[in-house]
Specification:
295 residues; mainly alpha; DNA polymerase, domain 1; hpI Integrase, Chain A; 2 domains; 59% helix; 4% strand
Length: 295
């Protein structure tokens, strides 16, 4: 069956022109799929049908694979079967009417306002590094931008007079996001007292730079937030995305409308933003249970 896998990967690489990571993911999924059926003594591709695919998906479930992993495998198998059908290796697509397993909506981890304030208080504002780190943390919580968007910001993307930043996501869709007074103050201090002393070249566009004078990386920021989490002794796993989740949740808890939060987060689909409404409902229930005399 490996001849079909080779043809499929060639099709993905040269006709669909998928990324290297996507190609490796498809190749790994289908290779494991084929190996499973070889173990079951199924040698011919036409012997794979709806029942055998369900058998494989149940096997993945049995060995403890996450629902998201099983869904991804099914998506890979769908693409593989579509390729086989187009190439006339099979007569009909066995994945038609096969439904993906429903994944549970996991509520994202968020910080309380007290925990946010504790985390943002950790950088030493008497040092250049602390001033830079304070500005990054304040800006991340004030805007809800992704860490990739944070490190991609250029100096020209900041408008302190009008209190906003311009942010472009991976799809090059620009959005304007307001920044609050605390983030503005921290950012202004960093730009005026630190940045120009760190950059090595006047042509450097990056807003946030490392001590080599070049653009800070995502990995560099992960190390920074990990350090301050440990310093703050917050007993939660905090990632850069935790501040994004906290930003959205706190806005909704304080009366922001869902559409505005969607625009600030840069979500193309409002259903992605709706996960945060579950968190606010969870908070309401918690308050009710604690305060109602007959809860």
């Amino acid at each position: 069956m490996n001849i079909y896998l080779d043809g499929f990967t060639h099709y993905l690489a040269h006709e669909k022109e998928v990324s290297k990571n996507t190609l490796e993911s498809y190749k790994r999924d289908i290779s494991q799929f084929i190996d499973f059926f070889k173990d079951k003594n199924i040698e011919h591709i036409k012997d794979i049908n709806k029942t055998t695919i369900i058998t494989y998906l149940l096997y993945l479930q049995k060995i403890g694979k996450a629902t998201s992993t099983i869904s991804r495998n099914l998506a890979s198998i769908r693409s593989f079967c579509k390729f086989l059908l187009n190439e006339k290796y099979i007569d009909k697509d066995p994945t038609i009417h096969l439904e993906s397993p429903k994944s549970e909506k996991r509520l994202p981890a968020v910080l309380t306002l007290k925990e946010v304030e504790l985390l943002l208080a950790q950088p030493d504002e008497n040092s250049a590094k602390g001033i830079r780190d304070k500005a990054m943390l304040e800006l991340l919580y004030a805007t809800g931008i992704r860490v990739s968007e944070l490190v991609a910001l250029d100096h020209s993307h900041v408008n302190l007079d009008m209190s906003y930043i311009k942010c472009c996501n991976n799809h090059l869709k620009e959005r304007i996001i307001p920044i609050g007074s605390m983030a503005k103050k921290a950012l202004e201090k960093y730009i005026k007292t630190v940045r120009n002393n760190i950059v090595k070249e006047e042509t450097e566009k990056a807003l946030f730079v490392n001590y080599c004078g070049t653009r800070l990386t995502r990995q560099g920021f992960w190390k920074i937030i990990k350090k301050y989490t440990q310093k703050a002794k917050i007993d939660k796993k905090i990632t850069p995305h935790t501040l994004r989740h906290s930003f959205a949740t706190h806005l909704l808890q304080n009366g922001a409308d869902l559409k505005s939060v969607q625009e600030m987060l840069g979500h193309s689909d409002i259903s992605t933003t709706q996960i945060y409404t579950l968190l606010t409902k969870s908070k309401i229930k918690e308050v009710y249970n604690k305060t109602h005399p007959r809860a």
